[in-house]
Amino acid sequence: MARVLEDDAKRLLASAGLRVPEFERASSAEAACSIASSFGGRAVVKALVPTGRRGKAGAVRLCAASLEAEVAASELIGSVVGPYPVDMVLVEEWVDIERELYLAFEIARGRPEYTLLMSADGGVEIESRPESVSRVPLDPIQLPSESDLAQLWDHLGLGALSLELGRVTHAALRLFIERDLTLLEINPLSVLPDGNVSCVGALMAIDDNALARQPDVAKVAIEGSERAWRPETVLEERVTSINADTSQRGSARYLELENGNIGFLCGGGGASLLLFDALVAAGGSPANYSEFGGNPTEQRVYDLTRVVLDKRGVQGLFVGHNLTNNTQVDVVAAGITRALQDAALAEPFPVIAREAGLHDKEGRRIFEEANVTYVGEETTLNAAADAMVDAMRKAGLV
Predict the structure, then answer these.
(1) Is the residue at 2 inside a domain?
(2) So what's the pLDDT on residue 109?
(3) Are 30 and 70 in contact (CB under 8 A)?
(4) List of residues 6+ apart from 309 with CB closer than 8 A
(5) Is residue 34 domain-shared with residue 111, that is, in the same domain?
């Protein structure tokens, strides 16, 4: 997932016909003061980092005068918000708000649909009120009209505002789809005293694989896997370097999770999400989310497997595909078993491979000769995940 900073996100929102406050970046306290003065003194100063919940972190300051904006910028620049050092701030005009709403779109995990999230009660406390957020699945083939969306807002009690909110929501949805976004969150979506609606806060992310189709977004996007809005870890940087090696065929993705003791290594596509969910549902604790595809070479599989195994605290490995298309199971097996041999792992270290597809008979032989438990397409994804957790439990690792 590639992240887009808030000012760039708001430029995209404005290009879609949505209202946003006036804003400008500042890299110094003096510049922030000057920008605030151009807005008449009253301004909002925000740490310009790719994360949400900045208000809760004290990284959004309401400033009644330009000197206050200078002080706020001085305090924020050079600070750290979450894992991010603050190099710049976003200075926005202060808009008077009568009501705060919440609007977001996201890709539904593991399903071919979008999800619309909306609430009549937005703002910084929205996460503490999950019951106030309505989740509406959207069929990409038959998207709702402005009128349909207005009715949803009307059901939330917005009355006369519903027509305008339907227009705004429809424009945001078109932007979400046309720009290949994976996340678009507008919080707050603010109702102004004159009845207009403004996108006062914005979070945006785009699919890495779509950047070639979106050159203007690619210029401002910060590429990276879906890391909950944080910089790459050392292990994630290793996988970025692995992918940069064009001499090796195939692709690799790796997301390091905070805890967990089961290395997770699966083929790309929807089945990898199903396998991950099945492992969690079975009581397993994944240490990472990792996938490969594009018929990778043995070396690429080896390199990715070493990254998975090198995470501190990994005590087992779960490998899987639903059914490979062009990825060769024997090549996958050769890369994984070589990595297991070279990693000098402490025993016991349960490993289960659930593979099926091209050259799977030879793949089974390679895995089993390396003492890896192999199951094929006769075993469901859920059953394979159950077997992995059972193996960890028998080894005293759960």
Answers:
(1) no
(2) 55
(3) yes
(4) 263, 317, 339, 340, 343, 345
(5) no
Domain containing 286 equals 234-394
Three-state SS for 294? coil
Query: Cβ atoms within 10 A of the Cβ of 360, count?
Result: 22
Give the C-alpha separation, 169 to 178, whole Å.
14
The predicted model scores a pTM of 0.60
Q: How confident is the model at residue 376 (pLDDT cuts 50, 70, 90)?
A: very high
279 and 256, same structural domain? yes
Residue 120 tokens read as 């009549």
Q: Which long-range contacts (CB under 8 A, 24 or more apart) does 29-32 make?
A: 29/70, 29/71, 29/73, 29/74, 29/77, 30/70, 31/73, 32/69, 32/70, 32/72, 32/73, 32/89, 32/91
Least confident range from 45-49, 69-73, 124-128: namely: 124-128
Alpha-carbon distance 198 to 17, whole Å? 11
Structure tokens given for 351: 């490993």
Number of independent structural domains in the chain: 3
Q: The CATH number of the domain where 330 resides is what?
A: 3.40.50.261
**What is the rounded CA–CA span in Å between residue 73 and residue 92?**
12
The structure tokens listed for 14 are 């404005």
